[in-house]
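Exercise 3.2. Students should predict the tertiary structure of the chain below and write it as structure tokens, then compare their answer with the key that follows.

Predict this chain's 3D structure.
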Amino acid sequence: MFSRTIRAHCFVLWLASAAVVVLGSHSAGATDIRISVEAGACPPTDICFRTSNNNLPLQDYSQDVHQTVVASASVTPDSIKLFADSNNSGGDGVYVSFVDTYTLTGTAAQMGTQTTVTPMLNLTGTMAEGSFGPINFGVGGVHVKVGSFQQDTPDLLEQFRVVPFGPTADLNQTIKGITNNVDLTSEAPITVTYGTPFDVAYEVFIGGSAHTIFDFSHTGKINFDIPTGAQLTSTGGYSQGAGPTPGVPEPASLLLLGSGLLAVLRIRKQR
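Answer key:
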């Protein structure tokens, strides 16, 4: 009887260990995010609104009854979405910048060795004449960066937060009675070490000199070029590449669980 009790207790401990092997665990952290709306309608600093949240609700952020800046923005681990509609003749802009921490994993032999990955931010959308009325002349600008993140200081505006790894993707076009299609990609290869966390920062600016609509509300996509067979994850929740599917037992785990069930049946028969 005593040996049966010990066997039963051992089985309970074994089953708990098997559950950890089969189910695994997951946790996600937060990214460092900055969003600001800046315009001449918001004196004296030109900053209408600033937030470190991952969402800027669509609303009027101006502080001048004669000039309106309607904007929105959102950030997820794999996308940046922006929208701005302004009748501000002095120019306005929406800045989004954030940083995430990534880890590249591979085979046991690869861990600790160096390789190259290429972070990419692709922004597609439109620049068009604003909804507040016709204009004689306007210039729209879009700037996309992938690089390293500068920490917050009181006077640091969004457009200076990211130091690009490579060339910045820029577009400046005249806007008058037409819709300009935009397709910009910022990318640069960087050297990383398997198993060692590394940071990548992203920044998008949209701004115009007068009466301009920028619609990038669905199309700012983050992606990486990584080695075949590798897996890339981030503290913010980004995931790309190969790896075991969460919650799906591996063959060895199934065999372990099955042998445990057979042990239970033997104990019951002995009783």
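Discussion points: Residues 1-30 have pLDDT under 50 and may be disordered. Residues 2-24+248-270 form one domain.
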